[in-house]
Specification:
The protein is α/β, with parallel strands linked by helices. Helices cover about 25% and strands about 15% of the residues. Strand 6, helix 6 and strand 7 form a beta-alpha-beta unit. Helix 1 crosses helix 9 and helix 2 packs parallel to helix 3.
Length: about 375
């Protein structure tokens, strides 16, 4: 049984100051970090709460009944989120993903979707608007989200076997309800649906083939995610990681696969198609095949901190600037300046001394900034 770490220091209280640089950084859509990576993808966490307790993300022992969630006043309002998102889009963001915790727990999230759906890229195109959910509330919200302007959803599902899935979400939530939600999202036009399965060796790797067989030929893209050392609470061990290469071999032996080209720069999933035309699967291999080289993702926490990597320790407090009276140009300049100084590439350096960036402390929890 892997060791769980009960965090003593509330990492959420730490923040880096987001300063408006003396030399303004104009929003031209072309800002790049120290490794030449543009800013193209913004993940926005709209709540730090979730109704699941997946062991690899929000283990029950840590996120228990005494866990202090962020007070509502600390959360960015929908108007504040949209105002910040507009600056990121002006710097080149083309895709916004709403995450959490569980984003559908945020009340009236359709209102935020409607606001974000008005945003246009530097080329005047609609910003691609997606959302990652555990599916528990999706069936009843799918139509309203589509009507508000959401383009697509990604649903997390870690197995088809009910006992395995209930054990992994640790709140006894049934598979059938998630499958119904996927069908409802498809019917509402929120496709092509992507399904994410986190693979933990010895826990749910026996679900790889049943999941592949189930979603093959349905138009749903199934992605297998290597179990990651995110945050500091999940007791991660390397021997519980099943490398994507083994996942691919397992599927290929029964359902032959052919490799596909990435559909966009910075894509996290390696794409494979069923040779018989039965659709596509993805492999997300942060542990064994790091993809930091063209990582163009920024993350905004629920209370307005900008994180430059999923494995970062600290974020830049944009909320202080926002509520401190900064105008849009100053906000954009601060965001551009922060991005220009970015050098994060944790997965590439994992296990080496240089891996952990940031001033001590511990890595931010995935449930706080979204996957
Ligand atoms: S580890 Fe950090 S830099 Fe690397 S791909 Fe993930 S988020 Fe990007």
């Amino acid at each position: 049984m892997s060791e769980r770490v009960i965090p003593l220091v509330d990492q959420r209280l730490q923040a880096l100051r987001a300063a408006v640089p003396a030399l303004p950084v104009a929003a031209t859509g072309l800002v790049a970090d120290t490794l030449g990576r543009p800013l193209r993808d913004l993940r926005i966490s709209v709540t730090d709460r979730c109704n699941f307790r997946c062991s690899y993300c929000m283990p029950k022992e840590v996120f228990d009944k005494d866990y202090q969630y962020l007070p509502h006043a600390a959360l960015l309002s929908f108007e504040e989120i949209t105002r910040l998102a507009r600056q990121f889009v002006a710097h080149g963001v083309r895709k916004i993903r709403l995450t959490g915790g569980e984003p559908l727990l945020r009340k009236n999230i359709e209102v935020l979707v409607e606001q974000l759906a008005q945003l246009r890229t530097v080329d005047g195109e609609p910003v691609e608007l997606t959302l990652t959910t555990n599916g528990s509330l999706l069936a009843r919200k799918a139509k309203a989200l589509k009507a508000a302007g959401l383009h697509r959803v990604t649903v997390s599902l870690d197995g088809l076997d009910d006992a395995t899935f209930r054990a992994m979400n640790d709140v006894d939530f049934p598979v059938a309800d998630v499958l119904n939600a996927i069908a409802a999202a498809r019917d509402a036009g929120l496709g092509p649906i992507k399904v994410n399965m986190v693979v933990k060796r010895g826990t749910n790797d026996n679900q790889i083939l049943p999941m592949a067989r189930h979603f093959k030929g349905t138009g749903t893209v199934l992605r297998f995610i290597e179990y990651m050392d995110v945050g500091a609470s999940n007791g991660w061990r390397m021997d519980e990681v099943l490398p994507s290469a083994e996942v691919r071999r397992l599927i290929d032996a029964e359902l032959p696969l052919v490799q596909l080209d990435p559909s966009a720069p910075g894509e996290t999933a390696e794409r494979w198609a069923y040779a018989d035309g039965g659709g596509e699967v993805g492999l997300i291999s942060s542990v064994t095949q790091a993809f930091c080289g063209d990582c163009n993702r920024a993350r905004l926490s629920t209370e307005g901190k900008l994180y430059l990597c999923l494995f970062a320790h600290n974020g830049y407090d944009l909320r202080a600037l926002l509520r401190g009276g900064a105008d849009d140009a100053e906000l954009a300049s601060a965001i551009g300046h922060i991005w220009q100084g970015r050098g994060d590439r944790y997965s590439q350096l994992r296990g080496t001394l240089g891996a952990d960036t940031g001033s001590g402390g511990r890595r931010v929890e995935m449930s706080y900034i979204g996957g």
